Amino acid sequence: MKFMKLGSKPDAFQAHGKSVRYVASELETDVTINVGEVKFNLHKFPLMSKSNRLLMLLSKAGEEKEIDMVDFPGGPKAFEICAKFCYGMIVTLNAYNVVTARCAAEYLEMTEDVDRGNLIFKIEVFLNSSIFHSWKDSIIVLQTTKSLLPWSEDLKIVGSCIDSIASKTSVDPASITWSYTYNRKLSVPDKIVEEGMNFRDKIDSVPKDWWVEDICELDIDLYKRVMITVKSKGRMDGQVIGEALKTYAVRWLPDSFDDSVSDARTWRYRYLVENLICLLPPDKAAGCSCSFLLKLLKFAILVGIDDSAREYLVKRISLKLHEASVKDLLILARPPQNTLYDMELIQCIVSRSLMHGKYSQDTKHEENGDFILGHEHETLMNVGKLIDGYLAEIAYDPNLTISSFVDLSRSIPEFARPIHDGLYKAIDIYLKEHLSMTKAEKKKICGLMDVKKLTTDASTHAAQNERLPLRVVVQVLFFEQVRAASGVQALSNNARDPSNSTTNTDEELEKTAADGKKSLMKQMSRMKIKDEDFLKNGKLLKRNSKITKNGVQLLPSRSKRIFDRLWVVGRGHVENRSSETSGSSQSPTSIAPGDTKSFGSSSRQRRHSIS
């Protein structure tokens, strides 16, 4: 820290109690100056030789020996510094008291007109030659200016400090030689560093956001002015600005908030959040992370910010929704909503995000003449995956209605959800937690899922899921057979024609699957499978699977009966078959020659994988 010593005489000020200060001298004091609650017993001549204001006041007082200094900036401590300077005693100025001394000297009119080398001149030299050249001293001085407004503002100390700080933030990190606070050094991945640097360089070099923690100690009004100046210089990218805002929010916003907080503190938090929203970087592609924006939104809802600020924050979040995590979206609902989480807000954000994606795609189509999803497609797929995870979390809420669940799920376009495993998980949780659902309600919620888009693992689980309607289980098993038939036929074709073993394309597999599906659909239409038919055939809803002698786990009875029906129907080469009541648990009895090994092996492997 920089400092400056003035005067050469030893300090002769002494105290009598807490309210009286005097100068120990052989000469008797001849004037008392009241500053606040403290009385200063001093001598007229030293004061009048340095202060034009005291000269006029003492001249008018005549024989009066007591003068009141009303609204003295800095109070008794500031006046004592000036009085010591008048006596030529040693005074040490530093970043903590220089603003106080400067404002007091201005009040007392200690200018060059009164005496050459007066206090104002010396303080200005100290500020411009030392304080404003020091990073941390500039911040300390700026902090002290708040209690001395409007004096510090009128004397341009505030503006000079802000310019000094903002200029230093724009310095090339490689040129920084002064000390700074960076408590996030242990979290190397969080550091914002230049691309193309090796790991050691990343640890040892000065990060681009080296300055954000030091200015976090500023009051929100001063912090806002510093950030506006930093942004106005145009040398700071949005990512660093976003990191600065995040760090400030972590420093001043509490981890939790409840209704018992006083109104004054609630107003303070609201004011802080609204100013942080105003400072968000204009660069929507970079800047603040979506996770930080959502945390800011959570707190904004709790403190009740105005609608315009909230609307702006929602808009910014919708542009980066694909970067969020499920945890970020879990925003607690406020009355009159009776659900645990605020689904209406998330629905609004999702709708805005999808509208933005559609606009981007339309613009790209108009410019290039070709509808290429590219990055926008990947972004929307991430949003779809995010919402499926969110649905799985909120599905535990007993107050969550089917209509709300369905509406949010349907808001995701089909192309943004190429795989339905996440949606199936959410539906399964909802069915498990809402046991009182009717058949119609189960049909409605399961209608969201396309069983053709389930992976093998999800299909295996669904085939054994007794919470699903029977029709859905039939569809799962049916398309599993289509998938198996297309795979086996492809392998058979390759075995007969080695020259095509490496040229079997996806289109050929899809054609094979389509042919198998068409044949199976015709057979399924004749089967007329209904819930009642299977319920008559025995214990179809067993939870436990049967174990063969070989230790291989089989499907539950309901799924296996359906599985065996589809197996036989799908092959179309069955010579004879046992009755449904006595032989439904047996494997097919006749398979076309040449395919026995492939299908037998496939069947055993599939059954084992179910376990």
Automatic annotation (TrEMBL):
The UniProt record lists the keyword Kinase: no
Lineage: superkingdom: Eukaryota
Record-annotated NPH3 domain positions: 209-483
Biased composition (Polar residues): 490-504
Positions of the BTB domain: 29-95
Family named by the database record: Belongs to the NPH3 family.
Name of the protein in its database record: Phototropic-responsive NPH3 family protein
